[in-house]
Amino acid sequence: MHAVQLGGSHYAQYLGMSAGVAALIISCQPLLTAGIASRFLNERLAPGQWAGVFIGLAGVALVVWHKIDIREVTLGSLAGTLVALAGVTSATLYQKVFSPRSDLKAAAVIQFAASLAVLAPLALAVEGFKFTWAWEMAAAIAFLVIFASAARVTSMMYLPPVFAVALELALFGVAPGWLTVLGMAVACGGVAMTLWSPRWRSSTS
């Protein structure tokens, strides 16, 4: 499912979907996960936690607003992003049901190994595995491995766009606008509200 998430989201952007649209769709994962868990797994979120889920999603929308371009959304790219959303949601629910106390470091190693086994042959077959090494690419890989995979709690899925904005400022000197800063604050507030009670904590894959 980790490979499905990464493959679907990046293929959607390969087909032309903007990073903002992809981020916004995949950021629906905490909301979708909470809804399914509430309906089928007898999980109960307090009203404040539900509000945190929606507030976090609104914060992400503000963060990526300047990168949203629906003109490049095609049926194929939309399908790829929805497959990615289904992958990460299914993995979250699976891990919550069957291995809720798994060691996160060991789980991350297994996830990346499985993703490598699935995606490396596809990269070779589809694109010939050609790439030009640059420090920007190394930074992007580090972001995906460290920050994105560190968002283990479901509602933490809202935070990678916030990390990305901070890295843009640190690495490229791209200062965020006031709307982005507001979105970062709203997203962090939504995460805090969702995690306020210890009853709803689940690991993502």
Provide the descriptors you would attach to this structure in a database record.
single chain; 205 residues; mainly alpha; 9 helices; 70% helix; globular; disordered C terminus
Topology of this protein?
Layout: H1 2-14, H2 19-26, H3 29-40, H4 47-63, H5 75-98, H6 104-127, H7 135-150, H8 160-172, H9 178-194
Helix pairs in contact: 1-5, 1-6, 3-5, 4-9
The biggest beta sheet reads:
none
User: What class would the helix/strand composition place it in?
Assistant: mainly alpha
Whole-angstrom Rg: 17 Å
Q: Would you report the number of β strands?
A: 0
Distance between the termini: 7 Å
Explain this structure to me?
- The protein has 205 residues and is mainly alpha-helical.
- The chain has one domain (2-194).
- It contains nine helices and no strands.
- Helix 1 (2-14) runs antiparallel to helix 5, helix 3 packs across helix 5 (75-98) and helix 4 runs antiparallel to helix 9 (178-194).
- The radius of gyration is 17 Å and the shape is globular.
- The termini are close together.
